[in-house]
Design brief:
By secondary structure, the chain is mostly helical. The protein is 83% helix and 0% strand. Helix 1 packs across helix 2 and helix 2 packs antiparallel against helix 3.
């Protein structure tokens, strides 16, 4: 199965947003749970904002639920990587 370029870009955006969320959480708290939640919630919110507000309401693109999911998957991926670094 070949993944479309658009989905790959959403995944990378999710990774970057997840890293941003984790960085913000790290400046606020040293709690690992909060850091991981920020790393997942930030890309999820980014995907929702992009797909629902920009694409659906402002008609700046095509609304695709899978785009939102791939953005969230990027955040989940970076959260797993962060957890591995914390554990090791």
């Amino acid at each position: 199965m070949k993944i479309k370029k658009d989905k790959k870009l959403h995944f990378v955006a999710g990774i970057l947003l997840g890293m941003l969320g984790a960085t913000i959480a790290a400046t606020i708290s040293v709690n690992t749970t909060i850091l991981i939640l920020f790393a997942i919630i930030t890309p999820m919110l980014g995907g929702i904002i992009k797909e629902i507000i920009l694409d659906k309401f402002l008609k700046l693109g095509t609304t695709e639920i899978m785009d939102m999911l791939y953005t969230t998957f990027g955040g989940i991926f970076i959260s797993i990587i962060i957890l591995l670094f914390i554990i090791i």
